[in-house]
Every structure is written in C-alpha cells, then in structure tokens.
Amino acid sequence: GLVEAVAAERLLRDGPNELRPPRGTPECVKFGRQLAGGLQCLMWVAAAICLIAYGVQEGEGDRGSSDNLYLAIALIAVVVVTGCFGYYQEFKSTNIIASFKNLVPQQATVIREGDKLQINANELVVGDLVEIKGGDRVPADIRIISAQGCKV
C-alpha cells in the first residue's frame, strides 16, 4: 500500500474523495411551487374571477355589495397561508434528510504501509489499496487487482 506521507500529499493535491453536490433549487422557486400547485391554481383563478366581477360591479355604478372583493381577498389569503405552511414543511424535511446523510460517514478498509486501516471514504487517494467484502459499498472508482467469487 501507500506510505502515509504520500497519501497525505495526494490528499492535499487532489482533494477529498467526494462528489460535489448538485446545485439545489433556489428557495424562492420552492416557495413559488407551493403557491402554484394544482389546487392553488384553481383558487387563484377563482380569486381573479371574483376581482373581475367586483370590477364589473363598480364599473356599472353598483356600490351596494363588496362580497366579491371580500371573497377574492379570502381566497388569496388561504393560498398564501397554505403555501407558507407547505414551504415550511418542505424546508424542514429537506434539512432532516441532509442531516441523515452526514450522520454516519462511509468507512473504507485500506492497506497502507502493509497495515489494514479503517478510514473515512473521503480520505481515499489515488493509489490506495482498498479491501472490499460482500455487502460493502464501493467507496471510490477502483481497479480490481484480485477477486474471489466477485459478482456484479
């Protein structure tokens, strides 16, 4: 296996054995999706119809009833409030899933200087000898040197 000094040098040179996470969806887009879901779109249309009906009533000079205006305001308030709750739930669940990812780091069995060591998979470097047993996750792009009963 590699000597510790060479492994440390390669780790500094190449960086950790990790994939860059994909770019996430911006928070404003997530909130916008909550405001423009299936039922929310129907409620936006109903609010728009109520506002148009109120405008037509005002245009004709009928100042007696403002029911359409109140209904439109109520519909818009319901959509915004449910959108805020939905966004909050999505935000919390995303954070919980992200915390599970970092809960237990992946380990790898590596041979360095003739000794078997357990290290974090992100500390693997090019040239490390990695031992994999049945049921283990492959911690990096590796080349198989020897195998016994290996099935893919």
Descriptive overview:
51% of the residues lie in helices and 10% in strands. A hairpin with a 2-residue loop joins strand 1 (107-112) and strand 2. With 152 residues, it is mainly α. Helix 2 packs across helix 4 (67-101) and helix 3 runs antiparallel to helix 4. The protein has four helices and three strands, in the order ααααβββ.
User: Order of helices and strands, N to C?
Assistant: HHHHEEE
Largest β-sheet summary? 3 strands, antiparallel
What fraction strand?
5-15%
In whole angstroms, the N-to-C terminal distance is: 25 Å
Mean pLDDT: 89
Spatial strand sequence of the major β-sheet: 2-1-3
Helicity, as a percent range:
40-55%
The count of strands amounts to 3
- Gyration radius, rounded: 29 Å
Gross morphology: rod-shaped
Structural class: mainly alpha
Low-confidence stretches: none
Count helical runs. 4
Give a nutshell description of this structure:
This protein is mainly alpha-helical. Helices cover 51% and strands 10% of the residues. Helix 2 packs across helix 4 and helix 3 packs antiparallel against helix 4.
Task: List strands and helices in order, with pairings.
Blueprint: H1 4-14, H2 27-35, H3 38-59, H4 67-101, E1 107-112, E2 115-120, E3 129-131
Antiparallel strand pairs: 1-2, 1-3
Summary tags:
152 residues; 3 strands
